[in-house]
Amino acid sequence: MPAFRAPYPCGEAWTASTRAGHGGNGNAVDFNLWPQSLEKGKPVLAAAGGIAKFTYGVEGGNMVFVDHGGGWTTGYAHLDTWTIDNPIEPGERIGTVGGSGSAGGTPTLHYAARLSNISQPVVFAGVTIPVGWNNYSPSAPKTTSTNCGAPPVQVLPVAQPTFLDPCGARNDRYVVPLSTGAQYLSGASVKPARTYWGRGTVTLMANTLPGFQLTGTTTWSHTFSTAPC
């Protein structure tokens, strides 16, 4: 798991609230200051380094999603403004708090960490944060942000791709794995984790995302054989 930190400014304590079905399984969190207007326009910070994209949805309004590799993504919704300059550094400003989408103008910072598109309990600095269940009030549990400057680099082993090269060419394939902190490239093309057909010579490189250090081999090349069975 990436070493996530709170997505709001260093030293500030925000309440964390959720409800049934929030984020699909109740693991998404709405962060707020009180009275619920103080957070409007506050910086939204990346919880960890990665590659970001913007999208708009009727529910989430203005949203930024950051891919951290290894199947991990974080989402930030109901934004007022957004700023994306890839790659994203840990703690980099990616937007400001707003009330877009279903928030109906009421400022709130919706946050979710997902693994393979399934929302996970929110963990900051290795600790699962307390969350108020159906408690959207000043009495909900608070978490103080430690998103203060550059964090220690997270050192992780890189997952190795697999080349499947049986006789003949009909079943030649290669598998790009999930690897936290890595983005796999073939030339200039990003290769998401899945199985691909293998033809000719395939060269892969694991690009290190900001805030991470990968250990092990990070470049691989394989020439697929066409020899008959």
UniProtKB/TrEMBL annotation:
InterPro entries: Cell_wall_metabolism_enzyme, Dup_hybrid_motif, M23ase_b-sheet_dom. It holds the Pfam family Peptidase_M23. This is M23ase beta-sheet core domain-containing protein. Gene3D superfamilies: Glucose Permease (Domain IIA). Residues 39-115 form the M23ase beta-sheet core domain.
